[in-house]
Amino acid sequence: xxxxxxxxxxxxxxxxxxxxxxxxxxxxxxxxxxxxxxxxxxxxxxxxxxxxxxxxxxxxxxxxxxxxxxxxxxxxxxxxxxxxxxxxxxxxxxxxxxxxxxxxxxxxxxxxxxxxxxxxxxxxxxxxxxxxxxxxxxxxxxxxxxxxxxxxxxxxxxxxxxxxxxxxxxxxxxxxxxxxxxxxxxxxxxxxxxxxxxxxxxxxxxxxxxxxxxxxxxxxxxxxxxxxxxxxxxxxxxxxxxxxxxxxxxxxxxxxxxxxxxxxxxxxxxxxxxxxxxxxxxxxxxxxxxxxxxxxxxxxxxxxxxxxxxxxxxxxxxxxxxxxxxxxxxxxxxxxxxxxxxxxxxxxxxxxxxxxxxxxxxxxxxxxxxxxxxxxxxx
Length: 379
Ligand code: CAA
Ligand code: FAD
What we know:
By secondary structure, the chain is an alpha+beta fold.
């Protein structure tokens, strides 16, 4: 066993941390307040190669591993969880299924643009009546003259509206339940595809979340991803890795909260001494740091398993579950350590606390992670 990051992984962490602290953090609070997505930040990530970390150079990537990708999401989320999820949805949810299931033409045409950051990606699975229960989705794709006609709507789509390439799941055969779902690659601007309501949210407010509407939207057969009827498998295997990206996001949020709380506890004096000198505060910091290390080990292990070509679905569900719950506990404690100041927008910990909540909800709620893990444990 080797717990040492490679020189390349250490270099990547340093590069992303510098970028995050110098280019992302200064506007994080303002973008959160204004609910403003900034494409220029995504373009800067592209220039650094972050938009294609795990993909081979022949497809526009930098040919690094999944652990490097997790480190990047962690470092971005340490200062701005919205920027972390922009990258996570782009890489894990939009690019991964094309890399895994796309044919050569699709990789050249779509993955290449996603990897280089020329295009931004999104993943559209959830619907108003089908969140945890994916198979109950209502969006249909009917064959017509060799093409497919999409009708229906998707909700809660991260990068909605600002993305250029969408992975969209629809029913091609309602009688076949999970075997009747097909995945499509849909480009922004396709006739019949419009962006609906933009959500007003508690956290990750500079990551846009929107509805997608499909009204007689004609998609050519060449945009089918994988085989017809293979969509549920594509959706689930995509989430197997995606969930670890969210674990990395949660880990970054928690680390950001701990860093802020530890610095404040050393500086803030009450009763003539820094509040950190009270065991009641230092025990909180100790528990936060311990949970973060446990979350980091689970997250890095799941990434390592994926890079090594070993099964990683259970490890990824565990990392997302543990890191999400830990981030929520840790950010609440960070606000507590800041006292009244923590409850204001003068410090970033209230934003971290609001941002942490989503990591227990999306890419499968933490109840669903327990369901997935429980099924594997008892299989
Ligand atoms: N890999 C491969 N196959 C899988 C699989 C996986 N991970 N999970 C299930 N399957 C297979 C099963 O083996 C089964 O195969 P058979 O054909 O042999 O029957 C089939 O798929 C059906 O599986 P289930 O019976 O387990 O299906 P289910 O209806 O009970 O659903 C579920 C399972 C785990 C609850 C699933 O619906 C689920 O993951 N729900 C949560 C949805 C979710 O995570 N959404 C996230 C949206 S994206 C997002 O949120 C983005 C963002 O934040 C940025
Ligand atoms: P429901 O499924 O209605 O669940 C409600 C509650 O019931 C939850 O607590 C849940 O855990 C619980 N529950 C449901 N079933 C069970 C069960 N079997 N056992 C125990 N408890 C259960 N989706 C996308 O497709 N793409 C995206 O990019 C995307 N981004 C998102 C961004 C944001 C900000 C948000 C809020 C959501 C996003 N989602 C996205 C959707 C997200 O994945 C769903 O919200 C999530 O899967 C839960 O679905 P739901 O909201 O319909 O809740």
